Amino acid sequence: MPEHPGTPLLEVEGLGIRFGGLHAVRDVTASLPPERITAIIGPNGAGKSTFFNLISGFYAPTSGRIRFQGEDITRLKTHQVVGRGIARTFQTTTIYKELSVLDNAMIGHRVRTRSGLWDALLRTGREQRDERESRDGAMRALERVGLAGQAGRPAGALTQEGQKRVGIAMALSSDPRLLLLDEPAAGMNPEETVNLMGLIRELVGGGLTVALVEHKMSLVMGLADEIVVLHHGQKIAQGTPGEVSRDPAVIEAYLGGHAHGGQMGQPGAAGSGASGTEEGAHA
Ligand SMILES: Nc1ncnc2c1ncn2[C@@H]1O[C@H](COP(=O)(O)OP(=O)(O)OP(=O)(O)O)[C@@H](O)[C@H]1O
Ligand SMILES: [Mg+2]
């Protein structure tokens, strides 16, 4: 599945959505290169989750266009977007703690493909026909996140990190080409954050393209190939971690209204110390 070099997997052009008088996302033009990690950052309320909601078809944009693998997907519904190869995780984890890890991943597969949540939970006739396909897709997803050996355990018995992996497996079960992760490291300690970074790198090494929203700068700076910065719904910068962390508009956005968000400019070493190594350091 090699791409033509330079051909973006996803392109958005002039993308925007208004909620009443509020322009939550405004005139954003950006693209995601294939098999790379793009981070979407910005202060609270910048429009990051809304941006994901637009790409994944949860919200219909009020302006602009979205193209995925060359196809215009602007008006597609969520399940159609999933069918094209885009999956996401949510800012708040939505796993079913009483159910097994495998059942969670299977629900992920079903919800994301044909049937609704109730079909999935109640195992209707249609669901039974899809059972095998779902199970296979779910097991493959669990293998990718390192949870195949825990498939039978209740999801709630896993560590915080394990539960995050379940959430990622739920998204991977539809076998996407593009995975959108909304604050995957929220609530994780530094060691778990490093493990998560390793997992994301592995997935990308296997051909996946990842876009992630994250406040933890250690993760963003240590992982992202490219960073898009949103502020008040608008894109104010895009570039490599080094470029973005030196950008005056970005520094202003973080320091201006958010004294505690002032973690820019320390690639790979900010905050948690999760990736405090010399790896990748440049003069
Ligand atoms: N469905 C909605 N209806 C009305 N306003 C909304 C809706 N969804 C988001 N907003 C508003 O849009 C703006 C952007 O919200 P969004 O959740 O995208 O921010 P964010 O960058 O993800 O922030 P955070 O870092 O806190 O998660 C906020 O002002 C929010 O209140
Ligand atoms: Mg958000």
Automatic annotation (TrEMBL):
Provide the ABC transporter domain boundaries: 10-257
- List the biased-composition ranges (Gly residues): 261-274
**Source species, domain of life:** Bacteria
> Which key words tag this protein in UniProt?
ATP-binding, Nucleotide-binding, Transport
Specify where the region named Disordered lies, as residue ranges.
261-283
Gene3D superfamilies per the UniProt record, alphabetical? P-loop containing nucleotide triphosphate hydrolases (3.40.50.300)
Entries under InterPro entries matching the protein: AAA+_ATPase, ABC_AA/LPS_Transport, ABC_transporter-like_ATP-bd, BCA_ABC_TP_C, P-loop_NTPase
**GO molecular function, one example?**
ATP binding
Q: Specify the protein name.
A: ABC transporter ATP-binding protein
